[in-house]
Amino acid sequence: MNDEPVWDRIRQGAGPSLALAIPEFLASALVTIALALLVAYYRGTYLDYWGVVACVFLMSVNYVLYFIAGQYVFAKLLRIFPLAGYAHGLESTRFIVLPAMVGLVAGLGGAIRFYRAAFLEEMGQDYVRTARSRGVSESRILFKHVLKNAATPILTSLVLSIPFLFMGNLLLESFFGIPGLGSITVDAINSSDFAVVRAMVFLGTVAYILGNVMTDLSYALVNPRVRLE
Q1: Is 203 helix (H, G, I), strand (E, B) or coil?
Q2: Neighbour-count burial for 95-112, b at 16+ CB within 10 Å, e otherwise
Q3: What percent of the chain clears pLDDT 90, i.e. is strictly above it?
Q4: CB neighbours of 198 closer than 8 A, spacing ≥ 6?
Q5: Taking Cα atoms as reference points, which of 107, 132, 128 lies closest to residue 119?
Q6: Which pTM was predicted?
Q7: Which of 26, 171, 210, 224 is most exposed, with minimal Cβ within 10 Å?
Q8: pLDDT tens digits for 77-86?
Q9: What angle do CA 222, 20, 118 make, to 5 degrees?
Q10: What does the alpha-carbon distance between residue 110 and residue 28 come to, in Å, rounded to a whole number?
């Protein structure tokens, strides 16, 4: 048991969790949407086919295996990044890059397939066929029209993941020795520190509710047909 106030422990863990989660979230959003647009643009080609195969493979690999492989290759063999640990300030960058990369790759397959399906659904709509009949280029259709109209499911996925930025990543932080909220929660469970566990469950519930509210509000920003009434 730790006699330190629960709020102080949560406040200390919030910084490392956000330092890891924010760059991972931004990089994941940019990379997955860009790659999904790429395979959707070349739909029906070998690039699309092998892209889907790669996504299925990435989804089939156990989440923990990414952590072990990342640590073994980049920390032990190549010695590019530290194996584990954390430092505050600008020094934290070299401890954050590897787990952020591993977290990005681990979620790449499912996200690309989801966004690709959203893009392909829009590309089969009547307005796309009308634009093609007018001679509008495929790239202009994809980036100006399809991306905009597919924003609703994409926004749902992105906004709902925001609450988890504040809750930390249980396995990722534990494997890489980052003293964030996820690592604090695991330690609290192992030591039967129910005060911390209850506090984290409460914060997680509040964050999830706020995420759903933000999702509903954000629909009005990307779809004029949605009214907040």
Answers
A1: helix
A2: bbbbbbbbbbbbbbbebb
A3: 14
A4: none
A5: 128
A6: 0.83
A7: 224
A8: 988 988 888 8
A9: 30
A10: 11
